[in-house]
Amino acid sequence: MSKRELILDALQELLYEGTAGTASVQDIASKAGIAKGGLYYYFKSKEEVLDALVERQYSNVIETCRAKLAEIDAPASEKIKLLLYFYRSTAVDRALDVALHEPQNAAIHQKSNAFIMQQLAPIVSEIFQQGVGEKIFVCEQPEQTAEILLSPIIFLLDPGLFTWTDEEVQLKLKALAQMLEASLQAPVGSFDFLYENWTKQSLN
Hints:
Layout: H1 3-17, H2 25-32, H3 36-42, H4 46-70, H5 76-89, H6 94-100, H7 106-133, H8 142-156, H9 166-184
Helix pairs in contact: 1-2, 1-4, 4-5, 4-7, 5-7, 7-8, 8-9
């Protein structure tokens, strides 16, 4: 295992222990069994280590979603539903999630959300293009439309950023479903899955 991975594993262990918030660069290096200078060879700061750990974690989540979706032969409308289901149900390290919602990690939290959208948007864009080929969607800008779909799900509904009531979230998802249906000229009800049977746990 490379030293870089040892450093990321060390920070992850500190997250498990609940001490990552107060841990210093020296603490991370000691946990990894390397010199402090060795850590600085790969990262400029503790924040960079956490940033890299977030990227590693979510890259694994998104690649899992991509692999599962590649095994399925389904119409575009069903693939979007499945992709969001896979994303929400693929386990994210709980300690890492808690750390990202700590006030001192707000900037990294925002970066993690941006990273997720950047990685998921091309997958959704491909699904929209499939829908165009199936003649169930009309979409001249699939990549930008994908970002519009993902933005509220990733940012607006992030409980670390906003504290909506269940009713408010459901209304927002219903509005998003109606907007997408109209924009894509999709069959009626194509995006109802966004808000039907919604629970707080289904999006977090």
